[in-house]
Amino acid sequence: MDPAAPYLTLATPVGDVLGLLSGLVGVAGCLLAHWYLLALLVAGCCGLAEWVVRRLAKKASAERMALEFVPARHFEPSLEEIFRRGVQLARASTSMPWWAPRRTKAVQIRLRADGSSPLRYRIEGPAGGERLLSITPFGPAVTVKKGPPVADKPRKHVVRAEFILRGKPTAPLRDVPLAPDPLQPLVDAVSDLRAGLGDLAELRLDIQRAPKWTLRARRVQLMSDARRRERREAQRAARWLRQDAGGVEDSLGWQLQQLIGGKSGGGGAGGGRRLVMPPVPRRVEPAEALGKLADDDHLVLVQLLVMCASDTEGRAEARLAQLQAALDVFGSGSRWAMRGWHLGPWRVGADRWPSRRGFERRWELGHCQPPRPNWVRLEELTGLLKPPTRHCRLPLLAGDLPSFEFGDPRLLLQGIHQGPDGRRRLVATYAEETLFEVGVGKAGGGKTERALAQAIGWAHAGGGLMFLDPHRDSWPRALPFLAHTTLADRIALIDLGAHGPVPQVSSWNPLDMRHGQVAHEVVEATADAFASVLGWDDATAPRALTILTAALAVLVAVNSAACQAGRPEDQTTLFHARPLLTDSAFRTTALAGVEGRLDEETRAWWQAVFPTLPVDAFAVVLNPITRLAANPVTRAFLGQPVGVYNIRAAMDSRMIVWVCPGGSGPTDRLITALLARDLLRAVRSRRDTPEAKRVPFRAYFDELITLTGAAPETIASMFEDFRKYRVHVHGMTQLLARLPGPVRLSLVQNASTLASTAGSQSAIAPVTAEWGNEPAPHVVAALDRFDHYVSLTVKGRRVGPVKITGPHLDDVFAAYARPDNAAAFERAARTTAGAAPLDHLTAHASGQLARVNAFLAQPGPATTPDSQEKTYK
Length: 873
Known about the structure:
Distance between the termini: 146 Å
Mean pLDDT: 83
Shape: elongated
Number of helices: 31
Oligomer: single chain
Helix content: 40-55%
Number of strands: 24
Radius of gyration: 44 Å
Low-confidence stretches: 264-270, 861-873
């Protein structure tokens, strides 16, 4: 055996190791010599991996869905509901396929304002989370619907920004209260946005569940930093402690103390320098060092991107600055800060290379890939996890309330609105859905001025209307703005004030049968008018109602016969009820003349019941008729057989009818009741016209307290029935509480527009109660003159209450003023209404009974046994 064999056996492994080491050294040297090849290989692998990840991320992003959330006006979520919504969003962010890259596993909240709405709230996320996101803890207070794709047209000026959390990384954002709404600063920032200038502002918040390994690494780093800071503090404290101790021992006072105490010298027990114990580093508590990152529960990673655009230079930059200021509200120990820096006049950020390309990719695909982790807890995002609540003041945009255009029959003027940017514009509602309006406020507050402006605008747009004003103040105010030749043949003035040296009055016969009215409807309308003013009903005055109804039936039958015979000038009037009841000769002639025109029950009543009635039974019926006859104006107005006033014809021909009853006394109330009941009858008679062919007509009632005192049930029926016949009522009153119960309930229930000027808080409270006391009564009570709070109906939804300024005629309709034409125009309006001298009409009314007797005395059509209904069918 070779003695060197063992040595060879031992040397062989050593040689192999040395060879391997030398080979590795050679490879390392080669790599160092050709390092760029290794760098290219690593870069190529990283690039390939990123390319694959981006392809997968783009594919996953194509399967996203969008939901839009529309809150109700009363939406007021609790903190628990909002927190549960945040948990849903965090859970939904993981509803992606297993192969989807992490950057796509996020849910995005989009807050967008482009002029179509104050702030659209939209959520986009994985398609698999649609069912989870559709069912919200907010309940029916929020409507969830699928969001259509958003396609933005290119704007000339666009600015982009990414916000990251700055400050102490473990500190939370500010705890913003829910009232006022945390979104209010963002809403205010976009409140002056103008769609006509191409303005756009959008904020996107991506929410992603926190990655565990990244969070653990961050915690380790934070704990190490905290321990390092604690050790440095302990070392600093020990150094200062030693310096302080050395300074004390070297002081003269300390040395004297040692001499006096006999402790100086080298052999003393207390000699030498005192021993200084350095402070021990304090134990670092994880909860204190990690702050909001201490627990995994409800911790999410967020990304906040903002883009503003406009077609006008400078507006996008200003909008971004406003949004940046709005986000400052959430700042505390931690705050939202714009990523980037300023270099002189330039801002280097998401708008510049190299950040812009990555920003646009994340913006378009919805990827959550912030450059640095933004860790927040769901509680910090409370203000952004829900749509705007009832505590948020939303601006009124042009899309919410259209602008008024003169001469457009589709629009109805409402007032002047001042936007957040100070711009003032005339606002309107759509005429077809403005069915009923109610204006409340103190005298002189501007409610009548607003109604006049609306009526004048409607008249110039070709619409028909009736303006009923017991005090006549509205006519001279509106006259200069109506005095146009285009309106001369459409306007009629029914003025019972009988002013001037030669007063003129129009005429109206409530029992006139020339226009094919149904007999029993005319009788019912007239009897109900008397009953409403006099307080008659079947319980308190059954006999009076029966007598008046029977008398009216005979008079209407006589008039039907006269019209059928071609002699309408021989018709009876209301005043002929008195001779019918008290003059036996006239009664006998009238009953004989219409025997075939009365129904069996009425004829039997006159034959069997009437002769048994005592004379004093007629007093209650004759008293109001006597009062009407005693007044020369009402005698002339109601005493003509052929009246010019015909409200049904006025509706169908788009007439402008101004009615001034003359006052608010008992006689005037009776006239008003007759007019109101006749209007109700005429409107209901439109059932004979197909709905599509019914001409829209508007009735304006000033001083509703006066009008409803005369005809409460009639006015209430108008607010309930007129919509079906395309007749719309606008009422104004000083006190809503003073209106009769049925009228008040019908007004508030059916009002498309509810407006209030200033007044006492007690008077305004019933109106603000309909708005949920927002604004409160004391706010409305402090309004300036001509200012209103108004709730409106636009496109089927309620808008407001919003503060507007009532239009002043001298300002809004200054171009329409024709004061020089006013006198001629008033004469034309009276001529259209058939006004004639008061004396002439009074004399004609006095001789009407003789003409009726002459007609009844002649044999012929009056005795034809044919009913009025058959004649005019």
